[in-house]
Amino acid sequence: MLYDPTERRIRSFVTRAGRLSTAQARALEELGPKFMIGYAKAPLDYAAAFGRSAAVVLEIGFGMGDTTSHIAKLMPEKDFIGVEVHTPGVGSLLKQIGEQELTNLRVIQHDAVEVLRDMIPDQSLAGVHIFFPDPWHKARHNKRRLIQPEFVAKLCAKIAPGGYLHLATDWEDYAIQMLEVLSAEPQLQNTAEGYAPQPSYRPLTKFENRGLKLGHGVWDLVFTKR
């Protein structure tokens, strides 16, 4: 069971040990101290974390970080915070930060629900990205999905008016649930009639490309905060 004994809530992820490559381990050791932000039960000072004042976008569950680094490089005028629990993914993104000399990206390795609750100031985010969250595709596991009304309401509290929430999934029934949940949230407004065209800043992943060639669908949802 995926319960947090201190909070009695169902978690949306399972912590997998995974294997660190030599390059990922080196990135954690050498770049972690500069680009990682430790979890703390205190509001995060963005200007102190990035050394400047800029619009901040939060990404929840960045996987191996390829999309995250792509978007950060594409938008140097914005600052990005990526949250991920799995160590190989954190090491992979840190490696990319070093290789691409990205200065506008920081990483937090912790449960995103707690980061959102404790570290992100209200109405402070220009945007939130959640790409291909675990679909928990078995019906009995659907309750573990991240995108639920309560969580979306908490996200909205952290997004500034005019900011946006961008979700993407390749599971149709999860896409349907996402659309229902976001459409029912009074603080949000859909930018499209139903699902959105894929925004140009979100690259196709290798996994996504393979799925599309096999005829699998991908659904993007982009809502703005009223």
TrEMBL record:
Name listed for the protein in its UniProt record: tRNA (guanine-N(7)-)-methyltransferase
Group of enzyme by EC: transferase
UniProt keyword terms in alphabetical order: Methyltransferase, S-adenosyl-L-methionine, Transferase, tRNA processing
GO CC entries: tRNA methyltransferase complex
Binding-site residues for S-adenosyl-L-methionine, renumbered to this chain: E59, E84, D111, D134
Organism taxonomic ancestry: Bacteria, Pseudomonadati, Pseudomonadota, Betaproteobacteria, Burkholderiales
Positions contributing to substrate binding: K138, D170, T205, K206, F207, E208
Stored InterPro entries: SAM-dependent_MTases_sf (IPR029063), tRNA_(Gua-N-7)_MeTrfase_Trmb (IPR003358), tRNA_methyltr_TrmB_bact (IPR055361)
Coiled-coil features, chain-numbered ranges: none
Gene behind this protein: trmB
GO molecular function (one): tRNA (guanine(46)-N7)-methyltransferase activity
Pfam families according to UniProt: Methyltransf_4
The reaction(s) this protein catalyses: guanosine(46) in tRNA + S-adenosyl-L-methionine = N(7)-methylguanosine(46) in tRNA + S-adenosyl-L-homocysteine
Entry function: Catalyzes the formation of N(7)-methylguanine at position 46 (m7G46) in tRNA.
Region called Interaction with RNA, residue ranges: 140-145
Protein family membership: Belongs to the class I-like SAM-binding methyltransferase superfamily. TrmB family.
Classification via Gene3D superfamilies: Vaccinia Virus protein VP39 (3.40.50.150)
EC number: 2.1.1.33
Top-level taxon of origin: Bacteria
Pathway it works in: tRNA modification; N(7)-methylguanine-tRNA biosynthesis
